[in-house]
Amino acid sequence: MRLLLGSGGLRTPERQQIYFDEMGSIFAGCEEVVFIPYASYDHAGYTTRLAEFSAPSGVSLRNIDDYENPISAIEEAKGLYVGGGNTFLLTKKLHENALIDVVRSRVRDGMPYMGVSAGSNVACPTMQTTNDMPIVQPASFETFDLIPFQINAHYHDGNIWLKEGNQFEPHFGETRAQRIQEFHEHNERPVIGLWEGAFLRWQDDTGVLVGGDATVFHPGEAPVTHLPGSEFNDELFIHHR
Amino acid sequence: MRLLLGSGGLRTPERQQIYFDEMGSIFAGCEEVVFIPYASYDHAGYTTRLAEFSAPSGVSLRNIDDYENPISAIEEAKGLYVGGGNTFLLTKKLHENALIDVVRSRVRDGMPYMGVSAGSNVACPTMQTTNDMPIVQPASFETFDLIPFQINAHYHDGNIWLKEGNQFEPHFGETRAQRIQEFHEHNERPVIGLWEGAFLRWQDDTGVLVGGDATVFHPGEAPVTHLPGSEFNDELFIHHR
Questions:
Q1: Per CATH, the architecture of B2-233 is what?
Q2: Which residues in chain A have their CB less than 8 angstroms from residue B141's CB?
Q3: pLDDT at B237
Q4: CA distance, residue A169 to nearest chain B CA (Å)
Q5: Do the Cβ atoms of B131 and A86 come within 8 Å?
Q6: 3-class DSSP state for residue B101?
Q7: pLDDT at B181
């Protein structure tokens, strides 16, 4: 099983180069990769933009809407890329199109899977560590369950600040760490917060962090931040070969 | 019908004084006010902290858990205050305890309602403009439907910044305005973004903004920011007497 799970926030040339390299690597040998744009409102426009942005990877993406049937598109796919946007919208459509089981089965059988932002959230047992607004109500929060932990994308710690003119003012909303700790008041699974630009390159039951930091949360323990190159087991503890 | 709907972020003495004044005013004459702490994990601890914080208002709060039955607590309440925390947790418990209809009916009949943050979200037709993480799955996103528009609490526009040492770095996550515009790709109801410290003092079908700014979103139109003292009708247009 091979997954590439990214945080998003690919706004700098350095981050983009890592994205191109990692994407080219996971989909090496795939003639065409099925792209799921359900997290965005404009499927066709988003697929076009993402395919153009991703061109330096050498990977050819095709919108799942352009296949005759989404289930058979997945059944026959060489690789799957699930894009970003709103995770509630994505999850709703995945359930409506009955894609949860077929994606899980194909990925477990070896089809490479790439997700960025919302696409990483849905690789988890549930979408419950998304940052997105619940703009639609999915049938269930359950998602592909490809890994036994949760991802929080666009992770950052500390408080956020707003710029007013040339001044920075603190904002008193909850920190991301507080939100994840609240998740752990009701759920047991560990959570990995991927900082912007970071990817988790996952194979079977271990993974390597690439391109950025990650902060790991186990219930009842202080969060720990890890550097690129760190290897994790499927309980999100450091993996020693 | 009388509502006081706050954004939260009450960390400055000026904001706190407005909170005490407004809270004392909406609950004037109420011997005891029922407090719903369901948005927090520790109901008793949160009620105690909030009651102490709110003491200068002169209002006496009692945890709904301390009544024999939550439905009859609402049926007999002189006033209701719904506190902040996680809106998914709050909404799940409101449905489990079958409180949606009885609260709606009592408030429409004149029982004063105060909500802050999550407690303002659930005064709306749905909780779908919350900023919170979906740490639990409620039976439905539908909430009290006391007003015909949506509230976004802790609103701010512009991008957020993170402080690293003494440096500020931009964060590339979506802005709040983008999230609300995504909500409008799937929903028609107008949204009012209450800036931290702001309250909407609502009576029947008009309201006055107090204590902070608010940014109003109508589908397909540019957002408009209004100052304290602005009066709105129930479509969130400026109300001219």
A1: 3-Layer(aba) Sandwich (3.40)
A2: 134, 137
A3: 97
A4: 10
A5: no
A6: helix
A7: 95
Tokens at A106, concatenated: 């194909």
**A150 contacts on B by Cβ (under 8 Å):** none
- Interchain CB distance below 8 Å, B133 and A182: yes
The phi-psi region of residue B57 (left if phi > 0; otherwise alpha if psi is between -120 and 50; otherwise beta) is: alpha
Angle at alpha carbon of residue B216, lines to B212 and B220, rounded to 5°: 160
Q: Note whether A241 contacts B: Cβ–Cβ < 8 A.
A: no
Alpha helices per DSSP H over chain A: 13-26, 43-53, 70-75, 87-96, 100-108, 118-121, 176-183
- Higher-pLDDT residue of B11, B16: B16
Instruction: Give the position of tokens 């926030």.
Output: A9
Length of chain B: 241
Question: pLDDT by residue (tens digit) across A70-90?
Answer: 999 999 999 999 999 999 999
Give this prediction's pTM: 0.94
Active site residues per annotation of A: 117, 132, 154
Dist CA B177 CA B181 (whole Å): 6
CA A111 to chain centre: 16
pLDDT at B7 over 70: yes
Look at residue A141 in the predicted model and tell me its pLDDT.
Answer: 98
Q: Which of A141, A159, A179 sits opposite B137 (nearest CB)?
A: A141
Q: State the DSSP code for A57.
A: G
DSSP secondary structure, A122-139, as one string: TTSSBSTT--S---S--S
Q: What is the largest CA-CA distance in chain B?
A: 54
